[in-house]
Amino acid sequence: MATHTQQPALIDQRLLKAMAHPTRQFILHVLSEGPSSPVRIQRRMDEGISLNLVSHHIKVLRELGCVELIDTVQKRGATEHIYRATARTMFTAEEWEQLDAKDRFPMTADILRMISEDTARSMVEGKIEERTDNHISRSPIELDEEGWSEVVDSLKRTLEEVLDAHARSAERSQVSGEPLMNARVVIMQYLVGRGAWNPPAE
Fold this sequence. Notes:
49% helix, globular
C-alpha cells in the first residue's frame, strides 16, 4: 500500500471504514484517476457487481466525506451522476503499521489487481513503449536491516516528488493549456522466498 510521510486531509477512521470493503476500495481507486459515474465504474468491475450495489457504496463513501457529487449529465432520458474523490486514498507509514494484516492484505491485493489492469491496458493499446524515456525495471537485491530502511526512505522521498510533480503539472496546464498525459507510477518493495518457486496448480 502506498504511504506518504505528510498527513493527507482525510486519513482517519472514515477512510479506514471506507476501505474496509473491496467494492469501496475499487471505487476510490477509480475516482483517484479522475471523476466518474456509477455506470462507468460498474462497467470496469467484475461481473456480478450490480449498478445498485455500486450506487449504494458510493452513497456510503459520500456520507463518509470521501467522495462528492460534482455534476449531473442527461443521457438518453436518464441522469448520470458524476463524482470525484475528495482526497488521495493514502495512509501514513505509522497508520499502515497499526492496521492488522487481515485489513492490509485486501487493500494490497486490490492495488496489485489495478496495477495488473493498468499494465495490460497499456500493452494492448500500444502505449507502454510509446515514449523512449519510460521506466520499467525489476531489481532483485539482497538487503540487511539498514539497507532495507534506506530503500524505504528512498521510496518515500520518491513518492513525495512524484506527487509534487503531479500537482505542479496540473497548475501549469491550467495556465498554458497544455494537455496532460495520463500516466501511472508504480513503486513496490517486498520480500520473496529463496530458491525455485513452483506456482500452485490451477
